[in-house]
Structure formats: C-alpha cells, structure tokens
Design goal:
It is built from six helices and five strands. The chain has helices spanning about 15-20, 55-65, 80-90, 100-110, 120-140, 155-175; strands at about 25-30, 35-40, 40-45, 50-55, 70. Component of the GINS complex. It is found in: Nucleus. This is DNA replication complex GINS protein PSF2.
Length: about 180
C-alpha cells in the first residue's frame, strides 16, 4: 500500500514476510542432512523421502537449491480457500485463517509455485479473499467509535495496513469524546 511518509508508522510488508519465515512448514528433502543447530532451534535430520518440519526460511533456502519439495499447508489449497471465500462473502465476520497467511502464501507462491496445486488459481482466490476482507475492514472503520474496535481474525498484514488510519481516527474520536472544558471562572 502506498502511503505518505507521515503515515508510515507500521512495519513494511517485506519485514512481515521475514518474520513469517520463522513459521514451521513441512518439506520432503531430496538430500540427507544431519541434525543442524541454529539459534532458533535444532532441525533434522533430513532423510529422503521422509517428511520434515523446518522453518519456512530453511525450506525456501533448500528449495532454491533444488534440495527439497515444499508441502503446501492444508489451508493453501483450492478447495479450502474456495470454502473460506464463500464464508467470507456470506458472513459479516472475518473468516478464520492463519495469522500470517498472506505472508506465507506470498513466499510459497514466489518460491515454490511448482510444488503447489494450480498456483494461478491460488493467486486468484487469495486476491479475491484479500479484496473481500479489505471491503469488510473499510466497513468496520466506518462504524468506529472512540471506545473500541473489534475485528477478530485479521491477519498481521491486514492489521498493519489499517493501523495508521486506526490510530489517527481513534485519536480524533477520543478528543471529540472528551467533555468540553469547564468555564467556571
């Protein structure tokens, strides 16, 4: 989203993607590796054709070197996304998806589209999903009052996008809700 510098108080999308690469994901290794110790944990051993769970950043690194196949998360399938999109467009509430679904799906579609079922259809469904959720966010912000905003099931990227507007709007609403200064003097 393109914002003026005065509203850029949020984390950038690439930074959110970097944070999301800590999520564990399943891979099918194509090479054997012993247990490897990282600051974030111990992963392995990797033994083809057995599945292994590793952080997304390791999976991406191995995939780029053609040393693994990445297994799509159960929520990154056409059937699941179609069902969730139907729920999203028929209910006023946000449907439930993983907290970092946007970042993870972008990384996987960029790096491992050959491991995903119909990646173009997945991109299209994710785009439709995003548009439906943005419309709900805009509608929710129109009904904002100074005391609270409840938008459960938003993802990190969606929260990050509305944060600058929300903070400014809440500040203005709080000032408007204050009682007028007394003039007893």
């Amino acid at each position: 989203m393109s914002l003026p510098n005065t509203l850029r108080t949020s984390i950038t999308p690439p930074e959110l993607e970097l944070i999301a690469t800590q999520q564990l994901i399943e891979i099918i290794p194509l090479v054997s590796m012993e247990r490897t110790v990282f600051i974030s944990g111990v992963y392995g051993p990797l033994r083809p054709p057995n599945k292994a769970k590793v952080p997304l950043w390791i999976a991406v690194n191995l995939k780029m070197k053609r040393k693994c196949h990445i297994i799509a998360p159960n929520w990154l399938t056409i059937e699941y996304l179609q069902n969730q999109l139907a729920l999203e467009t028929s209910n006023p509430a946000f449907s439930e998806l993983p907290f970092r679904y946007m970042e993870i799906s972008k990384v996987l579609l960029d790096v491992a589209s050959d491991d995903l079922e119909q990646p173009d259809k997945l991109r299209s469904l994710l785009k439709d999903f995003r548009e439906a959720r943005q419309a709900k966010s805009r509608e929710g912000l129109k009904q904002l009052d100074h005391s609270e905003l409840s938008l459960p099931n938003l993802s990190t990227m969606e929260i990050n996008e509305i944060r600058p507007y929300f903070v400014e709007a809440m500040s203005i609403l709080s000032r408007l809700a204050l009682p007028p200064p007394r003039s007893d003097v």
